[in-house]
Write a structure and sequence with these properties.
Layout (H helix, E strand, L loop, with lengths): L1 H26 L6 H12 L8 H22 L23 E5 L24 E4 L3 E19 L15 E7 L7 H4 L1 E7 L7 E5 L7 E8 L8 E4 L1 E7 L4
Antiparallel strand pairs: 1-3, 2-8, 3-6, 3-7, 3-9, 4-5, 4-7
Helix pairs in contact: 1-3
């Protein structure tokens, strides 16, 4: 698996560089759509020399990542109950059937919230953007679990220079939505953490309460790294194990 990942990174290195350059250009021209930025960027590059096609790059990188993941699953003996194994080696219950139930106001020019619970290669722009420097998302997990940790991901600093849209101070809550009591009584505080831009782009944090069964998680972020317009979540994972019922 390690060899395939190295090959994947090598094949997508050029595309990542161009996506990073385009993302930086986009951040400096927030009034334009990404399609308009692409057109203007390409014109400045002088026609097709260095041409950037945003959709083409996304498709290529997504298909390459999908191929590697399928190969990994096949080597593990098929779908194994349709479980989705992530590259951290820990089960992610916020994907493969999970649903984003609620979220704060979405930034205008970003994709659907499903982006933040979908496996990807972490390419620039492949994220869910929320308006402002504070907000929340609520995710119905694909099954009830006893939570152990959460993982938050932003774009790597080796890909883009400007990462001011990364979440900073965060809190996580969980509850079991089928309890016939008010949500306030069933909501549990699972912990707070700070996403550190100086560390890996993928950071895992243990929860403070791992004794409760939950099927819904809420991520609150109360600050980011300076972007006043929007905050981007590239991937949010929830780890744990299914209780014996």
């Amino acid at each position: 698996m390690e060899r395939e990942l190295i090959e994947l990174r090598s094949r997508t290195n050029m595309l990542s560089g161009r996506m990073g350059s385009l993302d930086k250009y986009f951040s400096e021209n927030e009034g334009l759509s990404k399609e308009e930025v692409c057109e203007d960027y390409n014109n400045r590059k002088g026609g097709n020399d260095g041409y950037v096609d945003l959709n083409e790059m996304r498709v290529v990188m997504r298909e390459e990542f999908k191929r590697v993941c399928e190969d990994y699953n096949n080597r593990k003996g098929g779908n194994d109950g349709n479980r989705l194994k992530n590259m951290l080696g820990r089960e992610d219950y916020a994907s493969g059937g999970a649903v984003v139930r609620k979220h704060s106001v979405k930034a205008d020019y970003f994709a659907d919230p499903v982006r933040m619970i979908t496996p990807s290669f972490g390419q620039p722009g492949e994220c869910f953007g929320l308006k402002g420097n504070r907000g929340f998302v609520e995710i119905k997990l694909r099954s009830a679990i006893i939570p152990q940790a959460v993982t938050l991901e932003h774009v790597a600093k080796s890909v883009v220079d400007n990462r001011s849209s990364a979440p900073k101070d965060c809190r996580v809550y969980g509850w079991f939505s089928r309890k016939k009591i008010t949500r306030d009584l069933s909501m549990y505080f699972l912990g707070n953490f700070t996403y550190d831009l100086e560390k890996s782009s993928v950071q895992t944090f243990d929860v403070s309460d791992s004794s409760r069964v939950i099927d819904t998680v809420r991520l609150d972020f109360t600050s980011n790294y300076g972007n006043p317009s929007y905050t981007c979540i590239y991937r949010f994972r929830v780890h744990g194990y299914q209780p014996d019922i």
